[in-house]
Structures are given as C-alpha cells and as structure tokens.
Amino acid sequence: MSSKLRVTLKRGLAGKRREHRATARALGLRRTGQTVIKENSPEIRGMVQKIKHLVDFEEISE
C-alpha cells in the first residue's frame, strides 16, 4: 500500500518569503484552505517541512 499526504494551506502567502511562496505554488497550493493530495516521497516531505508553518498535513493510506 502506498501512502499519500493531504496538504492544506492554512495561512495566506501575501508578505511571505519568495521561496515559501514558490514552494507552496509547486505543491499546487494557491488559495487559503485549498487541499491537495500528493505522493508520500522524500521530495514532497521536504517541501512540506520547508513551509510547515503555513500548512497542515496528514498522512493518509489508500
């Protein structure tokens, strides 16, 4: 079974560092409250870790 991550943007990106905005955009997050489901990989985990103060995330299994 492969696991996935449910990532939700909980804070707005206005006024945040350019790197943080770019990371959120690369994850597919544009609006506050938007949720995306991504594969659980080291690359995605690293991106989420970089903006952990802006997002909520949980591991889900299929």
Provide a descriptive summary of the structure in words:
The chain is of the alpha+beta class. The protein has one domain: Ribosomal Protein L30, Chain: A, CATH 3.30.1390.20. 29% of the residues lie in helices and 31% in strands. The chain contains 2 helices and 3 strands, in the order E-H-E-H-E. The protein has helices at 18-26, 42-50, and strands at residues 3-9, 35-39, 55-61. The protein has a 3-stranded antiparallel beta sheet, with no helix packed on it. The radius of gyration is 11 Å and the shape is globular. The N and C termini lie close together (7 Å).
Brief sketch in words of this structure:
By secondary structure, this protein is an alpha+beta fold. It has two helices and three strands. A three-stranded antiparallel β-sheet has the order 2-1-3, with no helix packed on it.
Apparent shape: globular
Chain oligomer state: single chain
Helix/strand structural class? alpha+beta
The number of distinct β-strands equals 3
CATH class: Alpha Beta
Rg from C-alpha positions?
11 Å
CATH homologous group name: Ribosomal protein L30/L7
Q: Say what the CATH topology is.
A: Ribosomal Protein L30, Chain: A
Please state the average pLDDT score. Answer: 95
Please specify the SSE layout and strand pairing.
Elements: E1 3-9, H1 18-26, E2 35-39, H2 42-50, E3 55-61
